[in-house]
Amino acid sequence: MSAVYVMDACALLAVYNAEEGAKVVADILRDARNGAVEVVMHQLNLLEVYYGVYRDVGKEEAANRLEKARQLPIMINPTIDSQMLEEAGRLKATYKVSLADSIVLAQAAVLGAKLLTADHHEFDIVEQKEPIKFQWVR
Question: The domain spanning residue 104 has which CATH number?
Fold first, then answer.
């Protein structure tokens, strides 16, 4: 089985905004396009990308980037099953992270995937205390 990555909003934004770490994400997306790895993103985390771009740049660019995201080799997960719900709830209560962060953490935990992120501020403590694997983009 190939490696699985769960993409956080900040990782996709790094590519869109040509930020530090964009090459790491682009390389993983290239590997996904070639079938070497799988990349999953929860729809709630894609919403973070959309509303951030909408707020900062406007509706038209937000729609454009959403369409581009849908063309990438990323499986968008629109559901929260019972296992993910309970894990997200536990993580949110334990670490006081945002709802979107609890979802991305839970998805990585449930799938046994690497969380592709740059959010050290939110996740360094989680990395120290949980068996979730992280792929830091910067």
Answer: 3.40.50.1010
